[in-house]
Amino acid sequence: MEDATSTNPQSLGFTDKLKSWLSWSWTYICAVWFAMVLTMIYVLRSPLKLQDTLTSASVFLNTLTPKFYVALTGTSSLISGLILIFEWWYFRKYGTSFIEQVSVSHLRPLLGGVESSSTTGLFSSVNGEAEPRPSVSECKVWRNPLNLFRGAEYSRYTWVTGKEPLTYYDMNLSAQDHQTFFTGDTQQIKAEDTVMQKAWRERNPQARIRAAYQAIEMNHELHAHSGKSQIKFLIQCAAAYVLLAEEEATTITEAERLFKQALRSGKREQRVQDPVTSLRPLTLNINLLVYIKRRLAMCARKLGRIKEAVKMMRDLMKEFPLLGMLNIHENLLEALLELQAYADVQAVLAKYDDISLPKSATICYTSALLKARAVSEKFSPEAASRRGLSTAEMNAVEAIHRAVEFNPHVPKYLLEMKSLILPPEHILKRGDSEAVAYAFFHLQHWKRAEGALNLLHCTWEGTFRIIPYPLEKGHLFYPYPGCTETADRELLPTFHEVSVYPKKELPFFILFTAGLCSFTAMLAMLTHQFPELMGVFVKAFFSTLFTPLGFFADKMESFMPSSFWHQLTRI
């Protein structure tokens, strides 16, 4: 058994070498085989009577009427047109060519082709085997940590422009989040508990607001009831105030007042005790509490009380350190950048810009901004091309390349190549929705750093030379997900032109079938309109085409006459 296992790797290595040699030599074998076939056809031209066959074929073609050629070219145009329509539909739905996919999947293995090596690299294990790509989280939709207020910001945009900044898909995701996060801790479900659940599910904003007021009124009516009912309705009352702050408040000041009212409702709840469970104090739903405090910090940031907002965010992160998935640090980074506290920004990045933590455009581009800020004021492309890049400039360029590889859409908005819109309530990491959300809040910080946008403009496109095929491989991150375009179209409004990267190039077979369809249709029309002229043209074309073949046949005849082959066959 030991001998067998020891010789097995050698046999496998010989087999792999043999397969690779056959794959490499297949092209040359096909060329030799094709040359041999042509030689045999020429040698056997007399026994096979090829000359007589060609003569009879030419006579038959000369006797055909122009209607036949019109029917032939028209049928070819129709078939190629049907193939073109099918290829275009398949490409729009699946992002690839059907013919190309069938060729790669079925014909290439038969011809000895090997699998593409683009799957290895970043996700290769120590022994060289490719690790699975992170397909589950590629197109996961995340809550936008800096999402705006519906009543005070999104609705005002609708009043001014008449356009809806949020899609139904985006709002439906928010409703699901609210139903999941803002549910009370008690396990007993009553009919009254469905008031706010129904409010979150309502599609009409006015219906949601009416349901929230209904929950508050029911809470006031049951204020004198027993402890457990009061606790449940205090939870629903706090959620009702949250809904009113998000939906009904038309100013940030009014929204802040309602959030404070929601927080007071939660504090009142903490003073209520459950008589059934030995006077055990029940606390407000943690998700609801964190949400209220975070929105209060965002209100303070929007109202200009930035230091107060920073303190509230730091306290919130210290009080709930395990809720890192809520990305409160991104709110903190934006507020610190507004204060121009770059040392504090660097300290936050040192904690969250870790290889084991999920990245975001805020993390990558803020890191690039800090490094670019250190050299951008004196940066000159002409001087850099003459003397080369310094160490600090090289670090800044590499940071920009890293950020652009993570989300290549952001520079289009920072450099104002595309117009900004209001960010959605949910984003797709590495997608256009995340780029819109980042640029909406951070464009001012890039403009404040003198020369930073100029450095970004000069260097960001160099990332695409490092990664020419981003769908197949990555450099610092996993390959760019191909599903971002579809998800972004669901998250972003229809009046926004979604940024697509990498730009999908039309497959060769679509271009080929389009050209073939157009060419054959043109031939059919010309043959129908000018039959005699097209007949002359076709004869001239074929005579010109077969002239080199005739010259080659004459040379072969002079070198090896047909009588020689007759005598050879008799022997």
UniProtKB/TrEMBL annotation:
<dbReference type="InterPro" id="IPR007311">
    <property type="entry name" value="ST7"/>
</dbReference>
<keyword id="KW-0472">Membrane</keyword>
<feature type="transmembrane region" description="Helical">
    <location>
        <begin position="68"/>
        <end position="91"/>
    </location>
</feature>
<keyword id="KW-1133">Transmembrane helix</keyword>
<protein>
    <submittedName>
        <fullName>Suppression of tumorigenicity 7 like</fullName>
    </submittedName>
</protein>
<dbReference type="GO" id="GO:0016020">
    <property type="term" value="C:membrane"/>
</dbReference>
<feature type="transmembrane region" description="Helical">
    <location>
        <begin position="506"/>
        <end position="527"/>
    </location>
</feature>
<feature type="transmembrane region" description="Helical">
    <location>
        <begin position="533"/>
        <end position="553"/>
    </location>
</feature>
<keyword id="KW-0812">Transmembrane</keyword>
<dbReference type="Pfam" id="PF04184">
    <property type="entry name" value="ST7"/>
</dbReference>
<comment type="similarity">
    <text>Belongs to the ST7 family.</text>
</comment>
<feature type="transmembrane region" description="Helical">
    <location>
        <begin position="21"/>
        <end position="44"/>
    </location>
</feature>
